[in-house]
Amino acid sequence: AQTVTQSQPEMSVQEAETVTLSCTYDTSESDYYLFWYKQPPSRQMILVIRQEAYKQQNATENRFSVNFQKAAKSFSLKISDSQLGDAAMYFCAYRSGHAGNNRKLIWGLGTSLAVNP
Amino acid sequence: GAGVSQSPSNKVTEKGKDVELRCDPISGHTALYWYRQSLGQGLEFLIYFQGNSAPDKSGLPSDRFSAERTGGSVSTLTIQRTQQEDSAVYLCASSLRTSTDTQYFGPGTRLTVL
Fold this sequence. Notes:
The complex is a heterodimer of chains A (117) and B (114).
Chain A: E1 3-5, E2 10-14, E3 19-21, E4 24-26, E5 32-39, E6 46-52, E7 60-61, E8 64-69, E9 74-79, E10 88-96, E11 106-107, E12 111-116
Parallel strand pairs in A: 2-12
Antiparallel strand pairs in A: 1-4, 3-9, 5-6, 5-10, 7-8, 8-9, 10-11, 10-12
Chain B: E1 5-7, E2 10-13, E3 19-24, E4 31-37, E5 43-50, E6 65-69, E7 75-79, E8 88-95, E9 104-105, E10 109-113
Parallel strand pairs in B: 2-10
Antiparallel strand pairs in B: 1-3, 3-7, 4-5, 4-8, 6-7, 8-9, 8-10
């Protein structure tokens, strides 16, 4: 079974600085997708970034980028120029690419990010 | 367009009562998912609907939990004879199809069982 581990329950960063959130996963599959979701106090889970395992290039979305290390099964999220609105719980998630096994996301326990002014 | 909506936003009930939680997916999305988020835990998959296919109920924790999806759109998650351990945030998500499509989430329903 696949698992997702986020080893940092809490992180903090100064406004305008850069922070990296860690995520590792365990799988025997070769085809899968990885996601970072953000959950602010409003509870709505918001997609931050998505990475297909078959792509070697790291995904980037504005100030958010990932460091995807497939061999190491690591998928860290880097937030550059941190803003107060980035404060939230961040979840790493895995989804199989295999038909019949791709119906659900498997989640880490999350990292609570505080942004200090 | 409109995102996934859920109602009610918050629900407080007494132990032993039945509750219904509603989810309106994004228009045109054929796949719908329910997850449960307990305090201090990650999200736990509950059930999945895809078009007219039989739902994947493999995540439902007990037979007190059931869900239906009418007309391929709105879904209702029902919890019968609620217990205190059912207290959690129930999140609904939808995606355009399934295999490679991103799941978009609603704001969730916070259920408190007294």
